[in-house]
Design goal:
Blueprint (H helix, E strand, L loop, with lengths): L8 H12 E2 L16 E9 L5 E11 L2 E6 L5 E6 L4 E6 L4 E6 H17 L13 E3 L4 E6 L2 E9 L3 H21 L6 H12 L2 E12 L2 E12 L4 H16 L1 E2 L11 E3 L1
Parallel strand pairs: 7-13
Antiparallel strand pairs: 1-14, 2-3, 2-12, 3-4, 4-5, 5-6, 6-7, 8-9, 9-10, 10-11, 11-12
Helix pairs in contact: 2-3, 3-4
C-alpha cells in the first residue's frame, strides 16, 4: 500500500511545487455553455529564495467540462482531466504514449491515506483536519497546520461556475500528485480549494511556506484567467484530441509520469 513518511527538505519542495501547480477525452469542440463555461488559466510558479526564480509554468484550458493542462514551454507533458467521465489521461508527447487513471482510484487512495493517518496517530502531522480561514472583504484565505501554510490572495470569479470548475480541477490535480508521490500533506490544499469555491473566488496568488527543522522554503504561484479561448487555444485542444486517439495506450507503471504544475 503506502507509508506515511516524515518530510525531508527535498520532499517538502517537491510537494510544494506539486501543490502550487495543477495537473496538466477530447470530443468535438463545443460552444460555451452556462453549465460548462470555457476558461483559460495561466500559472507561473516561483521559488522565493535569495534569488527568486521561475520554476514552473502551465497553461490550462477548460472546454466542454474537460481541463487540458499543458506544461510549458516544451508542451511535452500534458494531463487531460475528463472528470465527467471519471478519468484522467496523462500524455507524453516525446514518447507518444498515454495512460489513464480512474478518478475512483484516486478517491480510494485518499480515503485510505486519511484512515491510515488517523489509525497511526499521524493525522495532525499531515493536516488531515485542516480548517481554512478567510476574510471575504480582503479576499485572503489561509489553510495550514504546524510547519505548513497556504496563503491565497483571490479575485472574484465573473461567474460562479468558473470558480467551481477551476477549484475542482486543482483538487483533482492535488489528489493525482499525491497518488504519484506519496509524501506530504494534500488535505490543507483541498480544504483551501473548497473554501475558495464556496466563496466564488479564483486565486490571483498562492504562497505556500514549509518549515522542516530550521529550514523554511517558500513557493509562490501567480494566476491569470480569461473566460475566452483563442483560436490558438482551440487548435491546441484539437491537437491534444488527436494525441488521445493516436498515441499508444500503456499501463501506468510503464508511463513516465508528468507532474502537474500547480502551487496550490
Amino acid at each position: 500500500m503506502f507509508a506515511i513518511k516524515p518530510m525531508h527538505r527535498n520532499a517538502a519542495m517537491v510537494l510544494m511545487f506539486a501543490c502550487l501547480s495543477g495537473l496538466l477525452l477530447a470530443g468535438p469542440l463545443a460552444a460555451q455553455s452556462s453549465e460548462h463555461p470555457t476558461l483559460r488559466a495561466e500559472t507561473q510558479i516561483y521559488s522565493d529564495g535569495r534569488k527568486p526564480s521561475l520554476v514552473g509554468e502551465t497553461l490550462t484550458l477548460f472546454d466542454a467540462g474537460v481541463a487540458y493542462d499543458v506544461q510549458l514551454p516544451a508542451k511535452s507533458q500534458i494531463t487531460v482531466f475528463d472528470i465527467p467521465r471519471s478519468k484522467i489521461v496523462l500524455i507524453d508527447t516525446t514518447t507518444q504514449r498515454r495512460t489513464t487513471i480512474n478518478c475512483d482510484e484516486l478517491v480510494r487512495y485518499m480515503t485510505a491515506l486519511r484512515q491510515q493517518a488517523q489509525e497511526t496517530g499521524k493525522a495532525a502531522a499531515i493536516g488531515v483536519s485542516t480548517q481554512p480561514i478567510g476574510d471575504p472583504q480582503s479576499g485572503v484565505f489561509q489553510a495550514g497546520f504546524p510547519g505548513f501554510l497556504y496563503t491565497a490572495e483571490t479575485q472574484p470569479a465573473a461567474q460562479p461556475q468558473l470558480s467551481q470548475i477551476y477549484n475542482e480541477f486543482t483538487g483533482w490535480a492535488t489528489r493525482l500528485n499525491m497518488y504519484q508521490n506519496p509524501r506530504g500533506a494534500p488535505f490543507a490544499r483541498l480544504a483551501l480549494n473548497e473554501q475558495m469555491s464556496e466563496s466564488n473566488v479564483l486565486p490571483s496568488k498562492i504562497t505556500v511556506r514549509a518549515t522542516v527543522g530550521d529550514q523554511t522554503e517558500t513557493l509562490r504561484s501567480e494566476h491569470q484567467f480569461s473566460p475566452m479561448l483563442s483560436v490558438q487555444d482551440r487548435a491546441l485542444i484539437s491537437q491534444i484530441g488527436g494525441m488521445l486517439v493516436s498515441f499508444q495506450d500503456v499501463p501506468a507503471e510503464q508511463f513516465r509520469t508528468p507532474r502537474v504544475a500547480q502551487n496550490e
